[in-house]
Amino acid sequence: MTESAISGPSNGPAAPPQSYPGPGGSWFDWPYLAALVRRNWWLIALLIGGALAVAVAATLLTRPVYTATATIQVNETVPSVVGEQDAETEANTWDYDRFAQTQVDILKSRALAERVANALSLSGDEGFLRGMGVDPAAMPTVPAMRQTIVHDLLQRNIAVTAPRGTRVIPIAFESGDPAVAARVINTYAEQLIEANLQRKYDSSAYARRFLSQQLGEAKDKLEMSERDLNAYARRQGLVRLGDPAQLGEGGNAAGSAGNISLTNASLAQVNQAALAARASRVVAEGRWNAISGAPLFSPAAVREDPTVAALMQRKAVLQGELAEERARRLDAHPAVQAKQAELRQIDSQLTRAANDVRRSIRSDYDAALAAERQLAGQVETLKGATLAEQDRSVQYALLAREADTNRQLYDELLQRYKQLNAGAGVATSNIAIIDRARVPAVPSAPSLMRNLALALLLGSALAALALYARNELDLSVRVPEDVESRLGLPLLGVVPLAKGAGGVETALADPQSPLSESYASLRASLLYATADGLPRTLLVTSSAPHEGKSTTARALADGFARGGKRVVLVDADIRRPSLHRAAGADNAVGLTTVLTGQAPLAEALLAGADNAPATLPAGPPSPAPGELLASPRMQQVIDSLADSFDLVVIDSPPVLGLADAPTLAVLVDGVVLVVQAGKADRGALRTALKRLRALRPILLGAVLTRFDPTAGGNAYSSYYGNESYAYRNAAG
Predict the structure, then answer these.
(1) Which of 7, 122, 573, 620 qualifies as a FRET site for 168, CA 20 to 30 Å off?
(2) Residues 652 and 602 in one domain
């Protein structure tokens, strides 16, 4: 008994059925999916086999393609060959990924494709065109159009990626000719480096042109300023002994020892001589003052004079000789007189020599004093000339400073221009070729295994889509879960398909058969179908004929009767009566005769044997069965039977196209809808349910009949069938 069977009756329109992916309520209900696959294995095999066959055919018919790969290294720093050795210039250290992606975009650009095409002359290379699958004879004759086609071929067939975490970038090119592929991709790498260098050279071309123009203008200004400076100096009579640009601050001609005027140089020389003369005069004056008031022979300058010193030495010798003579002779002796005369002569010479020394010192003093006075006068004269010249040098200094500024600007521009020219000629690239492409030996495409894998994946996807569409477009109710998910009705029971000899009658006669067991389960569900238990009056109907409603009604009546209940089975299918044959009676008296008043109810009832239900046949056919069933007499018959029996089971006509079943549904305590597995149309069932619910009957649920758990790849045979648990004898 299912959970839905004990949840109570449906007293009105049920909620619209929800999308139900599978019996388990999940999109990945593996048993349901396995059953779906087994049921549609031929479709799956057809789609997957067709996809694989297409893959094999496409592989055999596809032109082989060869892929040549080279690797390049892209650095974020550029080695510098100008300046210090091993110096490096920073470039894009903060965003290498973007820089690498820029190089990838350059490799895919049309500009680089044009460089490669021009370098290899690909527009007229028939081998290249054939390798790219282009017939050279079909190429246009216009050169521009041929070049455009070649450029497009290069751009479409180059593959470049910028991997993360490495500066090595692989580049590849595809062609039908392996030699062409290797030659083109190697040229791509070379042209990338050349284009990079060319961009660097071109990037400085504007700067060089600008600096060249500025350099010419600076040169003209320098020449003009120096001419103005020289002209002014000539007019003012200014003669400079050094570089005019090095004039001191404020026009001071003495601002630099190496940059003075002639007047300044003369003043400096005369002033230096005057200072020297003053020093000489001071020395001479000191010497004179030292001997002018002293005794004749006291000053050291006198005594140190060579002549005086020699005379004094001679005097000392004579004095010694005179003393010896006096010791031996008298003063009147001629020898003594001669020595005395010689001594007097020496004294006279000493006096003259000392006086000569004093006069010499005085002469030196007078000469030094005269020289000092003369040089002092010249200094004063030159000072006046210098002051006058400084007044004239103010404008000269301004002109000299302007010329100096122009000279500095010219020198800086000239130095920068030389550096740019040197750097443009020796620039290096930060891109290097690591591995050159080799001629590939085997084609990279088509790959049979890859194509088969893709075909298998695509075929599986198509098969899954086809199964989904087939399952969604299949309007039949195949498995028990479809009752709840697609009809929105509680499942009361599942009745399997009767197999074996004898069919349904034999299976119902055997209480141990799967058919009898399923009806027993249905009866158990009905015992708890409402809050009060088993309904007193029960209507069994279906959406279309031949779905097993009469068999279900009879099986329910027989089962409840065997259980000890007083049951009556009413055949309300007046158009196609069948229960009278099962009861072994004719159909002369029945429900129609009771409703028309031709016979009382007791006379129309067929009493059943022990533990068998009573039967009310349908009776003779009526020209207006719908009106009879809708008459008040029908409600009276049902109420009368309900008073006399414990359970009234009514077998009604199908719902679609007739008003009989909806009319009877509102007269009973509960309605059971019979649905045949694999035959019932969901559209027809929903229409039937819509008609029933319009009258707001008590829909107890549905019974799935003729369910074959082993047919069509059904995965639920072990649950809904009777293989997992069967009766055995005592010996077994």
Answers:
(1) 122
(2) yes
Six token digits for residue 108: 């895919």
Residue ranges in 541-659 assigned as alpha helix (H): 549-562, 579-583, 591-595, 601-604, 625-629, 632-644
530 and 466 in a common domain: no
381-405 residue pLDDT tens: 877 777 766 666 777 778 888 888 8
State how far the Cα of 617 lies from the Cα of 596, in Å rounded to an integer. Answer: 14
Which 3 state secondary structure label does DSSP give 360? helix
Give the separation between CA 322 and CA 320, rounded to whole angstroms.
Answer: 5
Using CB atoms within 10 A of its CB, is residue 626 exposed (0-12), middle (13-18) or buried (19+)?
Answer: middle
Number of H helices, E strands in the chain: 24, 14
Torsional class of 500: left (φ above 0), alpha (ψ -120 to 50), beta (otherwise): left
Cα separation, 690 vs 292, in Å, equals: 161
Whether the CB-CB separation of 624 and 595 falls below 8 Å is answered with no
State residue 438 phi and psi, 5-degree precision.
-100, 160
CB atoms within 10 A of CB 160: 18
Q: How many other C-beta atoms lie within 10 A of the C-beta of residue 470?
A: 13
Q: Which domain holds residue 452?
A: 30-62+446-471
Concatenated DSSP letters for 198-265?
HHHHHHHHHHHHHHHHHHHHHHHHHHHHHHHHHHHHHHHT--BSS-GGGPPGGG-TTSBTTB-BHHHH
Among 454, 471, 488, which residue terminates a domain? 471
Say whether both 462 and 591 belong to one domain: no
Q: Indicate whether 654 and 683 sit together in one domain.
A: yes
What lies within 8 Å, CB to CB, of 656 at 6+ separation is 543, 544, 684, 687, 688, 691
CB 413 within 8 A of CB 214: yes
For 631-663, the three-class secondary structure string (H helix, E strand, C coil) is CHHHHHHHHHHHHHCCEEEEECCCCCCCCHHHH
Quote the tokens at residue 209: 């042109």
- On whether the CB atoms of residues 389 and 336 are closer than 8 A, the answer is no
Closest CA to 75 of 433, 487, 465, 414: 433
pLDDT tens, position by position, 213-243: 888 888 888 888 888 878 877 777 667 665 5
DSSP code, position 681: B
> For residues 191 and 172, what is the distance between their CA atoms, to the nearest angstrom?
14
The residue behind tokens 């004056």 is 285
